[in-house]
Amino acid sequence: MSAEERKDWDTYFMDIAYMVSTRSRCPRRHVGAVLVQGKKLLGTAYNGAPSGVPDCSEAGCMISEEVELVVTDGREEMVKKQRCIRTIHAEQNLLLFTDRIDREGSTVYVTDEPCWTCSNMLANSGIVEVIYHRSYPKDEGKVKKLMEQKGIVFRQMDNYEPPHQTRMKVSN
Fold it and tell me: What is the dihedral of CA 138, 143, 145, 150, to 10 degrees?
């Protein structure tokens, strides 16, 4: 990128979300989220244990296993999912630490496609758009349907390259 070129706004805010994700100490996935209204940054958050409580790097992941009935092409299948329940997700922290009035009509940039629980929370938060980079296949179909039902713009940045210093191998 030359000195005269500038990043587009989506790239700029997603870069910030990735930089925020570097604060996470989760060994499975670093997630960052930012709240933006217009071109104004209103808040940032990352996934992690509650303040003052040992996190996964100190106390280990707290894995919960759940089973979900998934119907694909008329065929029912029980799918096992593992989730760490020690951490608060980046989207949840973002909603905890921002005001509803600021969220009305705003956009959330998040490094990873929100899970089902976060999507439910975002759907009632006042935001109008979610932009993410990495997909989260465990909940993808039902999350997209929810966002469509709520009229929330939901899009993936396919050709985006995160800042080099923020890259980590993620676990699904």
Answer: 170
- Find the Cα–Cα–Cα–Cα dihedral 49, 52, 57, 63, rounded to 10°: -40
Q: Of 4, 58, 65, 91, which is the active-site residue? A: 91
Question: Whole-model pTM above 0.85?
Answer: yes
Kindly write down the DSSP assignment for every residue of 81-124, as one continuous string.
EEEE-SSBPHHHHHHHTS-HHHHTT-EEEEEE---HHHHHHHHT
Q: How far is Cα 135 from Cα 158, in angstroms, rounded to an integer?
A: 9
33-75 pLDDT, tens digit per residue, is 999 999 999 999 999 999 999 998 899 888 888 888 878 888 9
Q: Which uninterrupted H or E stretch holds 145?
A: helix 140-150
DSSP track, 65-82: EEEEEEEETTEEEEEEEE
Active site residue 91: yes
Q: Please tell me the predicted confidence (pLDDT) of residue 166.
A: 82
Which parts of the chain have pLDDT scores under 50?
Answer: none
Encoded tokens for 153: 């713009």
